Amino acid sequence: MDKYSNSTRLDNNIGITKSSEGTYTRVLVVPHTSKDSVAWIDDHLLDVNLARYVVDDLTAPLHPPRNKGHEVMVYLTYIIDHYEQLPDILIFMHAHRHAWHNSDLLGFDAVEMIKRLSSERVIRHGYMNLRCAWDPGCPEWLHPHETGELLAKQEQGLLARSWGELFPLDPLPPVLGQACCAQFAVSRTKVLSIPRQRFVFYRDWLLRTPLTDYYSGRIWEFAWHYVFTGYETYCPAEHACYCDGFGVCFGGKAQYAEFLALRQSKNDYTKELETLRGQQQTGSEAGEGVGSDGSVTMGVSTLGEEAVLRGRIEMLEKELSNRRLEALKRGQDLRNREAEVAGVHEFGEV
Questions:
Q1: 149 versus 201: which is more confidently predicted?
Q2: Torsion angle of alpha carbons 163, 164, 168, 174, nearest 10°?
Q3: Beta bridge partners of 129
Q4: What is the tens place of the pLDDT at every residue in 54-89?
Q5: What is the pLDDT of residues 95-128, one digit of tens each?
């Protein structure tokens, strides 16, 4: 296999998990600036080894050769520098504990994600995107062959021009897709199936490319899965990812779909309530519904509509909370996890 060709497919490198008594060594690789606070890691993740790279301090014990490509430079640097001494599981994440792209079912909390992450799933698959929700990124995000600039996907055209530099022996794919946002776990076996020199090659490209920090990082956000799986689109079924990956098991695809439908209904009612309140505010600013003492008054019908919406939202919030707690409890039993992913294609349902 040529060191510059990405010819390794994920299904040819499935790892073998340890016995129930076995434990896995894990490292958390986190890039951050000198101003970022990462105390949450030391406070809550004592059982995970930490590789903390300070990207803007060349005197720090761990730092990349250059602060470019967002997290990409750090991820590649860790692999290159530790290639001969890798732990069983490598977890690559951003420095903020709470972020919109973290798992909403786990409170958008990186601590909960790391604690609940299934090492067995990472070993079996070799690679796991830590974002189970498809949007944004799945099932198809970039169409490199399409011409024209897209404001929301400016990296699409840049990727088409950079593909031949990164993967000179691989044809430009018609589509690339995986859930955002460059947070993933990979097994030592998977990393070692790729020659170290290839990671050096990728980092050299990052150092040389005239692309900015932002755009070089964006390109790699939709290249990691290709490097580690060989698949152009990598979108595991959401319910299976949550259940097998984090122990949040709704009981199956249909039950998970019911949960999503309830959440969408709650969001719709919330927007409707916000619109109603906005109309009230607009009316008060125009002098409508203002009492003699200057207070804002509302008609009976408006008050009734708001009360109904609040009641529906409250009911749905309780139902969603109960179903989420039941899913967490169900996921504690390994048999439930195995039953939920039985028959689901290992690498997703696109």
A1: 201
A2: 60
A3: 184
A4: 999 999 999 999 999 999 999 999 999 999 999 999
A5: 999 999 999 999 999 999 999 999 999 999 999 9
Q: By CB neighbour count within 10 A (0-12 exposed, 13-18 middle, 19+ buried), where does 170 fall? A: middle
Q: Are 41 and 52 in contact (CB under 8 A)?
A: yes
CB of 259 closer than 8 Å to CB of 250: yes
Outline where DSSP puts E strands in the chain.
26-32, 49-54, 89-92, 127-129, 177-178, 184-187, 233-234
Write down the residue that tokens 């040529």 correspond to.
2
| Rounded Cα distance, 143 and 176, in Å | 7
Contacts 24+ apart (CB under 8 A), 307-315: 309/269, 309/272, 309/273, 309/276, 310/273, 312/269, 313/266, 313/269, 313/270, 313/273
Whose tokens are 């749905």? That residue is 316
pTM of the model: 0.88
Residue-level length of the chain: 350
| Beta-bridge mates of residue 178 | 234
Residues 256 and 253: their CA atoms lie apart, in Å, by: 5
As a whole number of angstroms, the distance between CA 67 and CA 254 comes to 45
Are 323 and 250 a contacting pair, CB within 8 Å?
yes
- Write the pLDDT tens digit of every residue in 122-164: 999 999 999 999 999 999 999 998 866 666 687 888 988 899 9
- Give the pair of three-digit tokens for residue 131: 């974002």
pLDDT of residue 280: 75
Could you give the CA distance from residue 225 to residue 233 in angstroms, rounded to a whole number? 8
Q: Report the run of H or E that residue 331 belongs to, with start and end.
A: none
Cβ atoms 343, 240 nearer than 8 A? no
Specify the pLDDT at position 3.
37
Burial 122-131 (b: 16+ CB within 10 A, else e): bbbbbbbbbb
What residue has token string 């809550």? 44
What b/e string do you get for 32-64 counting C-beta neighbours within 10 Å, with b at 16 or more? beeebebeebeeebeebeebbbbbeeeeeebbb
